[in-house]
Specification:
101 residues, alpha+beta, 4-stranded antiparallel β-sheet, 4 strands
């Protein structure tokens, strides 16, 4: 019984630690004009370590990016967008569990 309780507490602690470092970013991107642009940017950002979800909107010219664990720095995100051939106009942290807004 005690072992099951300890295991359950460990799992809850592990989930809380993972959530505690999760961040959601929104990146305004200049230069996206077609579906190929969206696909290119989506692939580049999805391949980054610690990135769990990427949504690219051609209509809004924005990317929403969710991270886990050691989130990439803002400079790393900027460089990834630049490497994809686009210009990151503005990066906003929408959800930072370490620093709630």
């Amino acid at each position: 019984m005690i072992q099951r309780l300890m295991l359950a507490l460990f799992i809850v602690l592990l989930i809380n630690i993972q959530t505690a470092v999760a961040k959601t970013y929104e990146i305004e991107v200049h230069g996206m004009t077609c579906a190929f642009c969206v696909d290119s940017l989506q692939r580049k950002l999805t391949d980054m370590p610690s990135v769990s979800k990427v949504q690219v909107s051609l209509k809004n010219k924005k990317v929403r990016l969710e991270t886990e664990g050691d989130a990439p720095s803002i400079d790393t995100l900027k460089q990834a967008v630049l490497d994809s051939g686009f210009t990151p106009v503005k990066i906003t942290v929408l959800n930072d569990e370490n620093n709630p807004q």
